[in-house]
Amino acid sequence: MKRYSAFAIAREAARYHTGWERAWRSPEPKSHYDVIIIGAGGHGLATAYYLGKNYGITNVAVIEKGWLGGGNTGRNTTIIRSNYLQDPSAAIYEKARSLYETMSQDLNYNVMFSPRGVIMLAQTEHEIRGYQRTAHANALQGVKTEWIGPERVKQLVPIIELSGPRYPVLGGLWQSRGGTARHDAVAWGYARACSDMGMDIIQQCEVTGIDKSGGNVTGIQTTKGAIKCNKLGMVVAGNSGHLADMAGFRLPLESVALQALVSEPIKPCMDVVVMANTVHGYMSQSDKGEMVIGGGTDGFNNYTQRGSFHHLEETVRALIETFPMISRLKMLRHWGGIVDVTGDRSPIIGTTPVGNCYINCGWGTGGFKAIPGSGWAMAEVIATGEPQGLAAEFGLNRFQEGRFIDESVAAGVAH
Amino acid sequence: MSTRIQTGGRHLDRSKQVHFNWAGKQLTGYGGDTLASALLANGELLVGRSFKYHRARGLIASGAEEPNALVGLGTGAKFEPNQRATTTELFDGLVAKPQNAWPSLAFDVGAINKMMSRFFPAGFYYKTFIHPRFAWKHLFEPIIRKAAGLGAAPTEKDVDRYEYFYAHVDVLIIGGGIAGLASALAAGQAGASVLLVEQTAHFGGRAVVDGVDIDDEPAEIWVEETLAALREMPNVTIRNRTMGAGVYDHGYATVYERINDHLPEMITDHAPNMDAPRHRLWRVRAGRIVTATGAIERPLSFAGNDIPGVMLAGAVRDYLVNYGASVGDRVVIATNNDDAYRSAIALVEAGLDVPVILDARTTADGELPTLAREIGIRVETGKAISSVKGNKHVTGVGICSQAGEGAELEEIKCDAVAMSGGWSPVVHLWSHCGGKLNWDADQSMFRPDPNRPPLGYDGAGFVHVAGTANGYLDAAGVMEDAIKIGKLAAKETGHKPKATKVPSTFSAPENPIEPIWQMPQGMSRKLQMKTFLDYQNDVKVSDVRLAAQEGYQSVEHTKRYTTLGMATDQGKLSNINGLAILADSLNAEIPAVGTTTFRPPYQPISMGAIAGDARGELFKPIRQSPMHHWIDTNGGFWEPVADWRRPYCFQQNGESVGDAVTREILNTRQNVGLLDASTLGKIIVKGPDAGKFLDMMYTNMMSTLKVGRCRYGLMCTENGFLSDDGVVARIDDETFLCHTTSGGSDRIHAWMEEWLQTEWWDWNVYTANVTEQYAQIAVVGPNARKVLEKIGGMDVSADALPFMAFKDGELGGIKARPYRISFSGELSYEIAVPASQGQAFWDMCMEAGAEFGIQPYGTECLHVMRAEKGFIMIGDETDGTVIPQDLGLSWAVSKKKDDFLGKRAQQRSHMVDPKRWRLVGLKSVEPNEVIPDGAYAIDGTVRDNGVKHMIGRITSSYFSPTLNHAIAMGLVENGPERMGDIIDFPTTDGRVIKAEICDPVFLDPEGTRQNV
To answer: Where do the record's region annotations for Disordered lie (chain B) (predicted)?
Structure first.
């Protein structure tokens, strides 16, 4: 792999950039792999990457029915934070956040991680108590967060309206090391690194069946033929239910549409990410200048990657109350993705009722921030065959045991 | 240079001068101008700077697809960035500013990027700025952010008003060209209700510009007659300046009406009857949607195709015919089709010079080329532009052979170039909800596939496309298709179309287009780097080829890697050209590459319009109790609670909030207090199966409750977690009244309905949320009974109305239902009266209570008093992970019932784990030290992952004035077994607070105060 650098660009400029090589190969599938990962989104690619990097397992295929990074990885609002409440969550999200810090260097691909800071606004007394609790928990978990008052909020976000007629801003939970990254670049950077390790990323290849023998997975059927494997990882977010069905087990998931929208680009006016759970909306400004806006999930299950308009109305209303200046901006585009939501708003990572078959799903509305941590944890599960490390408490069995990792407070608004 | 010409200008009112300000200059246009046409007429060719390289840009189009001419419009609270000059109608006093240029459009410092463009190809930022690690955030990113971003951010609060409209129609027709008009007429005549919308101010579309004849007269006459006929029809509604924005499932569409954007601000001030909202967002539910949205012309890809003075040929014609404005005096035409010859002929007829038409096709012998030759225009076939000369404006073009690599054969001086790469139907609205496309190789265009439409609830397609948008480029085809579609839409919505005559049309026939995706065919990478596909985002032919070379081969990857089509025009000009280059790079067919996803809205719509009226006071209107006004005027310090406002406390004589709370607690405990409890949810559950139903909803046994009695109940989710609590009263055999938390009334009502409608639909139970029908007033404290006895009307003695009973009767002449329940541990009555009598009863209590020391109290007093008694609060002691057993509430969980929601869940291994954190009281060792809300307790050990081991947490924490001691409730591992132990609570500011574990009932555990 030729390394990327300013020097490389200068060199290529001299020959009109005709010398750049492919970022990743586009091979036909081999007949057998040690590990097959289904789903070339951020989580699937990160899983493959850490299988290679942490465990030296490189005879790996990542199978994708569309184009890599085309699901929720390419549709989310790119927020990265780790101010979660429960211990297992804080651990995996903080691991992810710290991996984001060095991702550009690790992958030699600029994913534009920008720790611009994230504020979660408190707009009721109840929310104040909730965030103060999170701040206490984070302090013990080693996650740097801070409760800040309204004046500090205004200082960080000059365009905010503190004393809206409905919900005044009473303060917020501030994570200065949270921020955003370029979502496509995360998928592309991992894909390039995986390809460089000799892994096969096979796009436009849909899984049509899962082969089992004696309760164990032996391979998959795809639109590009049968492929055998020793171990299988499913990392397909909103379509996890379908895939589990093919393998013969069920998942406690609901798939719903989550929407986002962007404004036309404007000159920089907001440096940090703001989330407002009470009014249900969140906003940041991209490097291009667009205000990137997200809200809640639709109230019904669905697989079409678009959402209902009334949800956008609610989100935009909420944000105009919080940031009155956006009223005269225009919405450029809105879109939807299908997120897989669990009952406790925490992911499922671990073994399944089928032997040699592992699953990573249920990231719901907040998966992007977790990508490197999720891949790290999933790689450990697949490599060792045991639910351990960061994934230890996220297994499917927690639903049978009632051992929920409830993050509905932290995930109060989709993000 | 661009100029106003003496003739022409269909839309102009030359008798009316309109003054406006552009970039600080006072300029003049005519009535009927757009900002774009007025700028062109004033010789202002340079209108913007591009996003990435800050290249000088001029007008390129005449409509919504314009990528370059984005301006800042208005000032102050009416400022709006990124407004398209082409869709902005000129009005007197209009103020517009250029964007993305500093210090001025002509001398933009950012244009340094243009010099460096060779080093900034597609995706360059993914490959650099990687080291050192912190430089991205602190150095590179700030520079990039500042350079990007187009228009300035508004700084003031919007003063304009917006609103929603709702419409239900049989047929929504989007587009007011001849296709839309013909469809509307056909559907309207069939009796269908029709809404016809046109995004511009004018109807007629291209036909009226292109010299089409209908029924042997200019199309304009047919357009006027048809409009007149439609306006006569009561079943047809027509709106101009109204755009079809988005198509959604089940025939839902958003339609965006710009009501007064084109009016001078003065008019709204001087004419009150013009007090209309600025924008109106129509939410239309239509049986069928007909999109008659026409087509957009494609640029040609030649080097220098972005230099100001290069314009789409159709736009050249629009400005000439509609606005009497010309892009230049000597205009070279470059084309691959016959249509562009119309522009050449129009220019010559207007007295302007067309030095040459460069037609990339090898032959051009159709009717229009022949006519062009006849009027003396030089036509060169098989020729192309090798490069456009000039910097801030066009000075000439080099001519080359289309088949070659670009060797210049000749240079021709000119000041403008009109280009046409053919037309692409506007299929956006068809595609929003899943309509699929076919590639029409003959016409080099994607057109809707009628066999794969967006499907409605019944499995039938609910969108039709008519006219040019459907792939018909000739007037006769358009007319026939449009009438057919109009009739079809009417028929499908239950109407009988009438037999009508299709008007005869005449327009010059055209020979086939030849697809030309780059000019010349064999252009070098160097030329490709000067050939723009996406003008606003500066994406060039070389960028798309680079993306393909690097493996970003999916059309979505190419788009995202190069930013092709991601600008404010969403690729209206660039997408087809870009994916043709991609297909060529991949050696694939265009349809195999496919398009990116079309997403709403068609054109950007204002956030204000999306929010509509729901802003300020109307954003989530505040629910008000009957006593709201009294509280507001009597010192109430409000806090938001769910949809309500509740008083946190009542401040008297300038006292602090804290002092007020302390006074209220002490007064209520010593004398008597008055609380507005009206916000508590009240749900009637009625029917023969009501008791059986409540036995499922609550953990307690409710079916055994006696009429006239109350019972405190708990509700859990299926997962066993506590979700709400409240007092249930049995009104009669079949009727229960369930109280919920203030925030829970709607949620719990919906929860009940969900079970009744999906699981127990055969149970005879009805529910009604009567929260707002009653005012509920709590009279609390040792003197509570005295107050009610003074008001009189009902026996409220301990015998007549014992604890946990209620009675219907009258108090002070008002129908009242006092409940003997207590959330404070005091003698307490919660009295429900009709909402209309709430204030009267409140006044009565205040008056009767005066001699007993009555004072109103707020929510914080309520919270402290309940904590002193160890009563839990949903949302404080619970957080979605707590089960009743954690809170010492096992007594409220029936052991006798076979089932209730949450029962099975509560039997799971983790739920019965003795190590679960359970409720205890906590007393700070230092009596005045209140433990912060949410603090965690630690035992000093550290877990494997380095996290300090937590053994519990604070759920509620207060200073108790009654006990003169800081108290808290909390959940602690093995807590109830550790009475008397002292545990540590570290705070976020580095202190450690020590607290003793105790019983959570701090006050009067025997209940002697309440049971009197």
So the answer is: 496-515
Q: What is the pLDDT, as a whole number, of residue B263?
A: 78
Contact A265 B149 (CB under 8 A): yes
DSSP B286-331: EEEEEE---EEEPPP--TTTTSTTEEEHHHHHHHHHHH-EES-SBE
Instruction: State pLDDT tens for residues B134-184.
Output: 888 888 888 888 888 889 999 999 989 999 999 999 999 999 999 999 999
Is the Cβ of B623 closer than 8 Å to some Cβ of chain A?
Answer: no
The secondary structure of B844-893, three-state, reads HHHHHHHHHCEEECCHHHHHHHHHHCCCCCCCCCCCCCCCHHHHCCHHHC
Whose CA is closest to B600, among A309, A200, A78? A309
CA distance to A196, A367, B561, per residue, from A105 (Å): 15, 22, 20
Looking at the complex, does the CB of residue B914 fall below 8 Å from at least one CB of chain A? no
The token pair that represents B404 in the structure block: 């070659």
ipTM of the complex in this document: 0.96
- Separation CA A232–CA B428 (nearest Å): 40
A400 and chain B: CB distance < 8 Å anywhere?
yes
d(CA B54, CA B902): 63
CA atoms of B222 and B205, how far apart (whole Å): 12
What would the CATH number be for the domain defined by B162-295+425-506? 3.50.50.60
Sequential DSSP letters for A11-63: HHHHTTTTTPPPSS--PPP-SEEEEEEE--SHHHHHHHHHHHHHH----EEEE
Please confirm whether the linkage preceding A268 is cis (ω < 30° from 0). Answer: no
Place of tokens 């009625």: B686
The answer to whether A325 contacts B557, with C-beta atoms less than 8 Å apart, is no
Nearest CA in chain B to A389: B945
Q: Which residues of B touch A68 (CB under 8 A)?
A: 557
Identify whether the C-beta of residue A145 lies closer than 8 Å to the C-beta of residue A138. Answer: yes
Question: What are the residues facing A200 on neighbouring strands?
Answer: A61
Domain boundaries along the sequence of chain B: 3-119, 162-295+425-506, 299-421, 628-679+773-865, 681-771, 914-998
Q: Does A163 touch chain B (CB under 8 A)?
A: no
Tokens for B773, please give them.
């029908």
At A259, the pLDDT band (50, 70, 90 cuts) reads very high
Taking an 8 Å cut-off on Cβ atoms, the answer to whether A335 and B879 are in contact is no
| CB-defined contacts A:B, below 8 A | 330
Q: Is the peptide bond before B626 cis (omega within 30 degrees of 0)?
A: no
Residue B330 in contact with residue B352, Cβ under 8 Å? yes
- Rounded distance, CA A50 to CA A82, Å? 20
Q: What is the crossing angle of helices B340-349 and B367-374, to 10°?
A: 30
The tokens for B757 are: 């409608």
**Cβ of A313 under 8 Å from any chain B Cβ?**
yes
Which of B906, B909, B947 has the CB atom closest to A401's CB atom? Answer: B909
- Measure CA of the first residue to CA of the last residue in chain A; give whole Å: 35
Domain spanning A25-82+85-107+183-252+344-401: CATH 3.40.630.30? no
Which class is A118-180+255-341 in CATH? alpha beta
- A22-44 b/e with 16+ CB inside 10 Å = b? ebbbeeebeeebebbbbbbbbbb
Q: Which residue in A85, A267, A285 has the most chain B C-beta atoms within 10 A of its own C-beta, making it the best mutation to test that interface?
A: A267
End-to-end alpha-carbon separation of chain B, Å? 97
pLDDT digits (tens, 9 = 90+) for B782-791: 999 999 999 9
CATH number of B299-421: 3.50.50.60
Q: SS3 of B778, please?
A: strand
d(CA B696, CA B222) in angstroms, rounded, equals 70
Split at pLDDT 50, 70, 90, the class of B272 is very low
Query: What's domain B3-119's architecture?
Result: Roll (3.10)
